[in-house]
Write a structure and sequence with these properties.
Structural class: alpha/beta
CATH architecture of the largest domain: 3-Layer(aba) Sandwich
Number of strands: 12
Strand order of the largest sheet: 1-7-6-5-4-2-3
Oligomer: single chain
Low-confidence stretches: none
Mean pLDDT: 94
Strand content: 15-25%
Radius of gyration: 21 Å
CATH superfamily of the largest domain: Type I PLP-dependent aspartate aminotransferase-like (Major domain)
CATH topology of the largest domain: Aspartate Aminotransferase, domain 2
Number of helices: 13
Largest sheet: 7 strands, mixed
Helix content: 25-40%
CATH class of the largest domain: Alpha Beta
Length: about 375
């Protein structure tokens, strides 16, 4: 019988058969750079930490299980994972990417991969037809859904169908949803990307990244690049992510519940011009999200009446922190135009809706009355100061 996702956050299918590690409930940290061999031609299964490590292997197996993939590889950061992914491609290859992506991904594609001869077409997958951008040398379609920070929803099944009909693969960054709410491989994706720093780790205390695939062919390519380039996740960081995943389900449920209440509260404020959250019924991607995911997540964006108002809010918040990143237990507010998307040209940001009055909120697991109470006070103080 298939185990539920909360159980799989804690146990592999083979856990009950494991009798090593002295019965340790918390999987041990194998803090070793190399491994001894009994004799020439015989190995314990581990040779060198860059290639494999027992703690990292346990983490990779759990993440693969959560994403319904065959193989997961753990990296030193989310961007390390995307960087290695791009090593699959050669000069002359073409990739279609969503126009509204994390700024670090756009920076990598435009400033690093493009100089190496890989070309990109950035497409508004919400309003444009991806297929119109397919060329003979298109090798991949790369999307986030929901996107960062505008929460646009892309039809994963449709994107996978377009990619496969043209001999390309579909890559989906699933960081915002986590495997608890969405499994792109089940919908046709070939590779799933995660910044494990975010919801998988969940505590803002370490960096990590993942690539997950259900394809044996892709897996072999990625594993070769992995051992060659050396961007693997260290044993202690692997253990921290293992620990974080144990509470993934309850954290996601609580954070999502809080996010919906905050989104509804924000819609009542006159100074808020727009609330962008897929869990609201007026979000244009609401029904599509319901068809391809089990939830709406805990990320939302609000557009305020002016840049000045947004800056005052950021200055006045107290318990809630003005900080980059997302997916931790603490609620954070980010200012995309100078933080996550600072390297994206202003005209591109604004075309995507990323104005100087836009704030992105990663909702945590605090008591929601305390979060709304602080926001209410901050908004009241800002209004009074006008």
């Amino acid at each position: 019988m298939s185990r539920g996702i909360n159980t799989r956050c804690l146990h592999l299918e083979t856990d009950e058969n494991e009798i090593s590690h002295y019965g340790a409930i918390s999987y041990p940290i194998y803090q070793s750079a190399t491994y001894a061999h009994p004799e020439v031609g015989r190995s314990t299964g581990y040779d060198y930490n860059r290639v494999s490590n027992p703690t990292r292997d346990q983490l990779q197996k759990i993440v693969a299980s959560l994403e319904n993939g065959k193989e997961a590889l753990a990296f030193s950061s989310g961007m390390a994972a995307v960087t290695l992914l791009m090593e699959m491609y050669k000069p002359g290859d073409h990739i279609i990417a969503d126009l509204d992506l994390y700024g670090g991904s756009i920076r990598l594609f435009n400033q690093v991969n493009s100089k190496n001869g890989i070309s990109f077409s950035f497409v508004d997958t919400l309003r444009e037809n991806i297929e119109d951008y397919i060329t003979d040398n298109t090798r991949a379609i790369y999307i986030e859904t929901p996107t960062n920070p505008m929460m646009n929803i892309t039809d994963i099944r449709k994107a996978a169908d377009i990619a496969h009909r043209h001999g390309a693969i579909l890559v989906v960054d699933n960081t915002f949803m986590s495997p608890y709410f969405q499994n792109p491989i089940d919908l046709g994706a070939d590779i799933v990307v995660h910044s494990g720093t975010k919801y998988l780790g969940g505590h803002n205390d370490t960096l990590a990244g993942f690539l997950v695939t259900a394809s044996d062919e892709i897996s072999e390519k990625l594993k070769f690049l992995y051992k060659t380039t050396g961007s693997c996740l260290a044993p202690f960081d692997s253990w921290l992510i293992l620990r974080g995943i144990k509470t993934l389900g309850i954290r996601m449920e609580r954070a999502q519940q809080n996010a919906l209440e905050i989104a509804r509260w924000a819609k009542t404020k006159k100074s808020v011009k727009k609330v962008i959250y897929p869990g609201l019924e007026d979000h244009p991607g609401h029904e599509l999200q319901k068809s391809q995911a089990r939830g709406f997540g805990a990320m939302l964006a609000i557009e305020l009446e002016s840049k000045e108002y947004a800056l005052k809010v950021l200055k006045k918040i107290r318990m809630i922190k003005y900080a980059e990143s997302l997916g931790g237990v603490e609620t954070l507010i980010t200012y995309p135009s100078t933080q996550t998307h600072a390297d994206v040209p202003k005209e591109v940001r604004e075309a995507n809706g990323i104005t100087d009055s836009l704030l992105r909120i990663s909702v945590g697991i605090e008591d929601v009355k305390d979060l709304i109470g602080e926001l209410e006070q901050v908004f009241d103080e800002t209004d009074a100061g006008r």
